[in-house]
């Protein structure tokens, strides 16, 4: 379900970039939903997409009521990474993607000063080099 992947990407990006975001989501009344969502995404089992969508909606609604709009949505239009990505040449730029392959989050090397991490699993994002 691409809408879930896109919304997970937006949420993961917010939580990973802004360490205070977990607290803000909790303060908005959706801390339990965030914890359940991140646990489900980080699980070895494939998460229930319908349940993830419910949790994303609950987080978005709680945050919107608290003045934090766009926590699980993005104005950016997602486009897939181009073909030809490989980790073969260390001199080429790095693109970071979800290590769990469960969201569409992408971080380019010029956006960060250190390797980014997955907000759900706490794992380093997967590095891919552009050919």
Keywords for this structure?
alpha+beta; four-stranded antiparallel sheet
Describe the protein in words.
- The chain is α+β, with helices and mostly antiparallel strands.
- The protein is 40% helix and 11% strand.
- It is built from four helices and four strands.
- Strands 1-4-2-3 form a four-stranded antiparallel beta sheet, with no helix packed on it.
- The two termini are 29 Å apart.
- About 11% of the residues have low confidence.
Main-sheet strand order equals 1-4-2-3
Mean pLDDT: 81
Number of helices: 4
Strand percentage lies at 5-15%
Please tell me how large the radius of gyration is.
15 Å
Helical content class: 25-40%
Query: Which stretches of 5+ consecutive residues score pLDDT under 50?
Result: 75-89
Structural class from helices and strands? alpha+beta
Describe the sheet with the most strands.
Answer: 4 strands, antiparallel
* Basic shape: globular
What is the number of beta strands? 4
How far apart the termini lie comes to: 29 Å
Return the string of H and E elements.
HHHHEEEE
What's the gist of this structure?
The chain is of the alpha+beta class. The chain is built from 4 helices and 4 strands.
Helix-strand blueprint:
Elements: H1 2-17, H2 21-27, H3 31-42, H4 49-65, E1 85-86, E2 94-97, E3 106-108, E4 126-130
Antiparallel strand pairs: 1-4, 2-3, 2-4
Helix pairs in contact: 1-4, 3-4
């Amino acid at each position: 379900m691409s809408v879930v992947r896109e919304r997970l990407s937006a949420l993961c990006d917010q939580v990973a970039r802004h360490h205070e975001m977990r607290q803000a989501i909790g303060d908005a009344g959706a801390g339990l939903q965030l914890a359940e969502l991140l646990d489900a995404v980080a699980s070895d089992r494939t998460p229930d997409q319908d349940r993830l969508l419910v949790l994303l909606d609950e987080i978005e609604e709680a945050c919107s009521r608290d003045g934090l709009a766009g926590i699980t949505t993005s104005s950016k239009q997602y486009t897939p990474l181009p073909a030809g990505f490989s980790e073969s040449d260390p001199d080429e730029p790095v693109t970071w993607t979800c290590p769990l392959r469960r969201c569409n989050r992408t971080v380019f090397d010029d956006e960060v000063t250190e390797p980014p991490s997955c907000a759900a699993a706490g794992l380093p994002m997967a590095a891919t080099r552009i050919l």
